[in-house]
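FYI - complex with adenosine-5'-diphosphate, inputs then prediction.
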Amino acid sequence: MKFIVFEGIDGSGLSTQSHLLKEYLLGTKAGVLLTKEPTDGMIGMLIKNTLRKRINFDDTTLTLLFAADRTDHLANINFDAYDYVLSDRYYISNFAYQSQTIDLNFLIEINRYARKPDRVIFLDVKPETCIERITHNRDHIELYENIEQLKLVKENYLKILEHLKTKFDLDVVFVDGNRSIEEVRKDIIDALTDANILEISD
Ligand code: ADP
């Protein structure tokens, strides 16, 4: 089983590309689960309602809810039943978005028992492009979805990914997500094949 995580700022194409990778893998007859954080569970719903600005939690509570949603998420996945588990966002999102107000060491500590991904795909897209995509295609704008926030979150992502690579030996690959959906899709498959994450023979 390989656990592959997609990360990036809002509008970077996480949902699009994780679905395309799932379709590709299913086409190879592999067993695939595509999952997502925040989840559709009870704790995930509290988080989604906060992101949609319907309810409000202080930053520490929201951070703990994200970590609790993750333990609940992991407890409900039978990793052994699949060849690939793909997650659209995981703890690195939590670190990048919440470390603006919450200490990174605390964030890392409360995620200590979360399964380590085999490979993290970071979709690297300009914040301006992301905002354009979001405003063209969505009927609502969520918390963090403005240019200043996305720029800050992207900076955080880059710093944190470097830290996690060095300190925790996290396997991260950067994919230029500014290009067409098809070009990005191909790059993702190449990035996984190069790392021997995809054990597929044509
Ligand atoms: P995320 O899940 O990261 O927020 P989505 O996959 O939902 O992003 O993409 C946001 C919007 O941008 C969607 O309408 C999607 O169709 C569009 N989109 C995704 N990738 C690209 C791309 N490479 N080029 C142009 N538009 C894209």
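The first strand starts at residue 2 and ends at 7. The helical segments are 14-27, 42-51, 59-75, 91-98, 104-109, 127-137, 147-168, 181-194.
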